[in-house]
Amino acid sequence: MTKLHNAQKALNKAKSIAVLTGAGISQESGIPTFRAKEGLWRNYHPEELATPQAYKQNPHLVWEWYKMRFDIINKAKPNQAHKLLKQLENQTQLTIVTQNVDGLHTKANSSSVLELHGNLTQSRCENCHTLSPLQPNFDIPPKCKHCNTRARPNVVWFGESLDQNILSNAINAFTNADLALIIGTSAVVEPAASLARLAKQQGTYLIEINPNKTPLSNLTNLSLQTTASQGLSSLLNPHSNAAVEKTT
Ligand code: OAD
Q1: What pLDDT is stored for residue 36 in this prediction?
Q2: Less packed terminus of the chain by CB within 10 Å, N or C?
Q3: How far apart are the first and last CA of the chain?
């Protein structure tokens, strides 16, 4: 029996599945990843843009960058990988913990989604914290509809704490899962990457889908070195023609 067959069997048996997703799952929806050569950080230094200090110094520049990303996200549609995770949710208890701020898991109708790094389709009032959906062609900086104060992107910046409720629900999901899927993340940003290590410590079956190796690859029971949609297709629809380029 191959590693892929074992993984398919483990997936069929699993009563509770935790999924960690990163920018790679949305790559096939046309959203650039962060750390690839053509990634979002290439022309920008994250420390110049994605920090509270940068926002304080130059809110207009920071908003321009997020508006450029919002324009891409707003037009993007869930791809096959997002849809297959929704299909899996129909079969078993599944929690998606995502580092993505694009809202595509929710657009794919997944119901149990924990957004660790916030959501770029919304702004958050700097005074009363009201969340408002961003509209196409919004003015920079957007203002709160209630108190007319400047609003910031509803994302977590470097140096800020994650929402503690979301994080503890994510930890619970990975602690209690009997199988974890790690999809499209370079696994270098904490605490997200440690969720997989936590699951491993519990003896949880780990499957990674990523065309490239990551610091987590050696911990996994199966590392499918392919795209998110191909990897999920071959795991969930064993009779599909999806090619798995390489397994380790
Ligand atoms: P990265 O850009 O660091 O990593 C994307 C991963 O996706 C890489 O490991 C790629 O090999 C993989 N990948 C590329 N195309 C893929 C595909 N079609 N299918 C599957 N995988 C593919 O993005 P993240 O790991 O998500 O944080 O980055 C984590 C965090 O760093 C982000 O949430 C963001 C960033 O700074 C904040 O903004 C707080």
Answers
A1: 74
A2: N
A3: 14
Any atom of ligand 1 within 6 Å of the Cβ of 185: yes
pTM flag (> 0.90): yes
**CA geometry: angle 149, 152, 120, nearest 5 deg:** 140
Mutate to test the pocket of ligand 1, among 69, 152, 154, 210 (most ligand atoms within 8 A of CB): 210
Q: List, by residue number, the catalytic residues.
A: 117
CB 179 within 8 A of CB 14: yes
Tell me the per-residue pLDDT of 149-169, one tens digit each, with 9 for 90 and over: 999 999 999 999 999 999 999
Which amino acid does the sequence have at 127?
Answer: N
DSSP states of 169-223 as a string? HHHHHHHH-SEEEEES----STTHHHHHHHHHHTT-EEEEE-SS--TTGGG-SEE
Structure tokens at 75: 């037009």
Strand 93-98 to strand 16-21: parallel, antiparallel, or no bridges (unpaired)?
parallel
The Cα 172–Cα 152 span in angstroms is: 29
